[in-house]
Amino acid sequence: MSSPKGLVRLPNMIEVFAIMFGFIAIMFVSISLLELPIQLALFASWFLIMGLGLKLKLSYENMQEGLIKGIHNGMEAVLVLTTVGALIGTWIAGGIVPSIIYYGLSVMNPQIFLFAAFIICSLTSLATGTSFGTVGTAGVAMMGIGHSFGIPLPLVAGAVISGAYVGDKMSPLSDTTVMTASLCKVDLIDHIRSMMWVSGPAVIIASILFITVGFFYISDTADTTQAAAAMQALESHFTITPWLLLPAVVVIILLTRRLPAIPVITLGAVLGSTCAWLVQDMSPVDAIQTAYYGNAMQSDEAFLNTLLNRGGIESMLGVVALILFALGLGGLMERVGILQAISQGFLSWANNPGRLTLSTMLGGFFGNFFGGAAYVSLITASTITEKNYDKQGIDRRVLSRNAEAGGTITTPMVPWTDGGVFMAATLGVSTLSYLPFLWYHMLVLVIAIFYGYANIAIWRTTPTNEENIADSHQNAIASQQ
């Protein structure tokens, strides 16, 4: 494997481990001790990697070029995330998200509550494409209802987060889904279809587990007043009607027909603002403003204020900054040769689909553990192992599926990632407490690894020729001189 442009040699493993140790130190000191935003920790890590680049005789201009290239490669995800922020704000103000929650609560039964919480959060995240938005809306409601049923909160949190990540991983509205397809150079819908091979069985098995456990933990005479109070509060502040579910149906249908994501999501936001104006009796200007500022309401019900005062482009600006720093970090790691050095270590070992799958997932976990964000993990999972898939003649749809499993799915499992911190803070349950109940997450990991070793849904392409790769690389260098 050739060194990146301008690099005299790849870093050795001692240097790679030194960077890992330094990165852990920066993350621990910044987040745990100083309680600084993760964005600042990632920004500081840029200069740690640049220090190694200078040692390897890379110029600052060369490293900056790699950094900018890394950010450029993920800009589609940034644009999608921005439009998703507008979508969430308008869908809450327009009564679309409240209607989803309302009709989910209307079919609630104590003994099937865990299953219902899992399904409601799955549908909400599929409709919005965001695990954070789902947990912050439907998830908070499920925690309150579950508490009224006397169910252990870590178990409820497991059902909520499991459901939330169904959409985060599968929805065409999800920034991580779009980013993974982009990084792996796979069509978005083809990527989602590939993930269905793993997520479909995982959803079914997780549903059976939540139903089974529900019958052991919950009495059929449990108190349901909390669910009734939630529905009554929603009705008092929003016009609830099944017709408000149509915008979600329209957006999902248009996206599954392979229409461009950004215009479709923007159309969804327009529909949400229209519903806020025509159905919820907001003024036209206020309805439009919810696309940027999100929903704002004053209610005597504190849980409603917590649930539904969110969304908007403004709410995504901190996440956008996080993505930019994470993408820049990935670009630097690639330009300095850290990812290539790790990839070479995997190359001789990952010589079959099973090991290749496992190496991709380890790469994703590596990104979450050291990068603290799904965006970093998706970069490491895809970049570290992508050439190995080409060399073995395995379709990149398998790469994107495994990268999503190792990257997105493991994010809430690490306490200091953005996902882990958000889930614990929003639901009031520590990461290590809810971790044993992330059954959907665990099933996705197990099924994906099983598929790799059993050679199931491992589609083949023409293996790349190593000599052709070297010739192409030399030709590219010659053309730049």
Looking at this protein, list some descriptive labels.
481 residues, mainly alpha, 24 helices, 74% helix
Work out the helicity level: over 70%
The helix count comes to 24
Coarse structural class: mainly alpha
What is the number of E strands? 0
Secondary-structure blueprint of this entry?
Blueprint: H1 13-33, H2 38-55, H3 60-73, H4 75-93, H5 96-106, H6 113-128, H7 131-148, H8 153-170, H9 175-183, H10 188-217, H11 225-237, H12 246-256, H13 261-278, H14 284-293, H15 302-308, H16 317-336, H17 338-347, H18 353-371, H19 374-392, H20 396-407, H21 418-427, H22 431-434, H23 439-454, H24 466-480
Give a short synopsis of this structure:
The chain is built from 24 helices and no strands. With 481 residues, the chain is mainly α.
